[in-house]
Amino acid sequence: MTREKYNLDVWAYVLMPNHVHLLIYPNSFDYNVSLILKSIKQSTSQKIKSRVQNSGLKLPGLIENMISGKEFRFWQRGGGYDRNIYEMNLINPIIEYIHYNPVRKGWVDKPEDWKWSSAGFYIEGKKSVVIIDKENMNRRMI
Predict the structure, then answer these.
(1) Residue 11 carries which DSSP code?
(2) In this structure, is residue 142 part of a structural domain?
(3) Within a domain: residue 141?
(4) Is the pTM of the predicted complex or chain greater than 0.70?
(5) What residues have CB less than 8 Å from 6, skipping those under 6 apart?
(6) How far apart are CA 54 and CA 56, in angstroms?
(7) Going by C-beta distance under 8 Å and a sequence separation of 6 or more, which residues neighbour residue 132?
(8) pLDDT per residue as tens, the chain (142 positions)
(9) What is the number of structural domains in the chain?
(10) For position 9, which CATH number holds?
(11) Residues 3, 130: contact at Cβ < 8 Å?
């Protein structure tokens, strides 16, 4: 699992149909965001491809096109956008931005209604699909 392999905490996430928004905290000074993202993307897309192919379902649209071609691609092309955050007062606005992605797309009315998000954990105290390391958020930033 990427969390253990790269010694990081997950503070917030939203899984979208073809991309993910993550707020992670590396627990060491020696980290490589590109390797972390590659690990997350590869393992996730391989699991999704396997499940779709083994289900026997005919899925319209994007996923069907992805598995029928020679190249399987689940995530958007490119390395993504990442940045370092050095001030704790920026964390909550970033988490809110992350959680509102499905709302901005019109898929849900409230962030906590999106199952593949940490919004339910923060807003309603629900168990999250991905474990959130909130207890570590009060420490000093690296």
Answers:
(1) E
(2) no
(3) no
(4) yes
(5) 26, 31, 35, 36, 39
(6) 6
(7) 10, 11, 12, 118, 121, 122
(8) 788 888 889 999 998 877 788 898 888 888 888 888 888 777 777 777 777 677 765 554 555 555 555 566 666 666 667 778 888 888 889 999 999 999 999 999 999 999 989 999 999 888 888 889 887 776 655 4
(9) 1
(10) 3.30.70.1290
(11) no
